[in-house]
Design goal:
The structure is a single chain. This protein has a 6-stranded mixed β-sheet, with helices on both faces. The protein is α/β, with parallel strands linked by helices. It has 8 helices and 6 strands. Helices cover 31% and strands 10% of the residues. The chain has a single domain, classed as Aminopeptidase (3-Layer(aba) Sandwich), CATH 3.40.630. The longest helix has 21 residues. The structure holds zinc ion. The site of zinc ion has 7 residues, from loops.
């Protein structure tokens, strides 16, 4: 946590462009443009000591980092879209820190990428999750707890947009393997709760199933699932779905990385929590975090917020073993 302060100036720098544009006038009559891009924050699930789920060879945290980078590169082919990663290295982040990147950057969409495991031997294929509606906070006022509860329910006003994005993505995924419609789960997903914009959790496959692990291992920038996500993002942004061919890579090197995420801080105190109970009965600990520049209010972090495994609220998701 001692590094957290370092991230703030970086976040402000990153946020200058979209914020300045947003303040410049009554939001973009003609839709996103190169000067006022649609900002999507892509969150590679897990990282650092939190390896996520495991296949025979592949770790979820490594796959998500690669996939997020490739998705960002795909979206970078469109100047009207600005993709920002929550992490660009094998670093550990809490759910609050991931959400903060999206909130600071005034993103229009937040996607967290995963490749979860399943206890079902034959489980395979992607899955989509969106936040479940949450009861309005019972605590009124500006007390830390009241603010924390509101913060946790920021997905409530985006339910319709979330559903629209999820259905669009589901349709595109289903077209990849005819007849296989990935499920859409509506759950209390910790990684989505603090995000103040439409958001979705996308599991790109079941890493514990050999067939899916092999596919995930070979994921490249032209991967049909990543392309489907990119097109769904474009559609959601109100843009055409064209993805121009990959630009030639300069001789020097450098993968096309249009956007930058702030340095991800280490989280010495967070620990892994896959077996912890759902969060609903736990009060957030607002005091653990420094004030954010956006609100002046410390974002709450509940004790297990380092984990981003979805927490089932109303139903056991098929194929999600975590
Ligand atoms: Zn995961």
């Amino acid at each position: 946590m001692r590094h957290f302060r370092l991230i703030i100036p970086a976040l402000w720098l990153v946020s200058l462009v979209p914020c300045a544009d947003a303040l410049a006038g009554p939001a973009k009559p003609g839709g996103p443009s190169a000067s006022a891009p649609f900002v999507v924050v892509i969150d590679p699930g897990h990282g650092g000591r939190d390896a996520g789920s495991r296949g025979a060879l592949l770790l979820e945290k490594d796959f998500t980092l690669r996939a997020a980078g490739m998705l960002a590169a795909l979206l970078a082919r469109r100047s009207e879209v600005k993709a920002i990663l929550t992490r660009e290295a094998d670093t550990e982040m809490t759910a609050v820190q991931r959400a903060s990147v999206a909130n600071y950057n005034a993103a229009a969409l937040f996607l967290t990428l995963h490749a979860d495991a399943s206890w079902r031997p034959g489980a395979r294929g992607p899955a989509i999750m969106v936040a479940a509606p949450r009861r309005p906070p019972r605590v009124a006022g500006e007390a830390a707890q009241a603010v924390a509860f509101r913060w946790q329910r920021s997905q409530n006003i985006h339910l319709a947009s979330n559903r629209r994005f999820a259905l669009s993505l589901q349709r595109r995924f289903a077209a990849i393997r005819a007849g296989e419609r990935p499920p859409i789960h509506i759950l209390a997903v910790r990684n989505l709760e603090g995000v103040r914009m439409p958001a979705a959790y996308v599991s790109l496959g079941v890493i514990s199933t050999p067939e899916d692990e092999a596919r995930l291992s070979e994921t490249g920038e032209e991967d049909p699932y990543l392309t489907a996500i990119a097109r769904a993002v474009l559609k959601f942004a109100g843009l055409t779905e064209d993805l121009p061919p990959k630009p030639p890579v300069p001789v020097e090197d450098a993968p096309a990385e249009s956007s930058r995420a702030p340095e991800s801080p280490r989280q010495p105190e967070s620990s892994e929590t896959e077996t912890k109970p759902p969060e609903s009965s736990q009060a957030p600990e607002a005091s653990e975090h420094p004030a954010t520049p956006e609100t002046g209010v410390a974002p709450p972090e509940s004790p297990q917020s380092g984990a981003d495994a979805p927490v089932t609220q109303n139903a056991a998701p098929a194929g999600e073993g975590r």
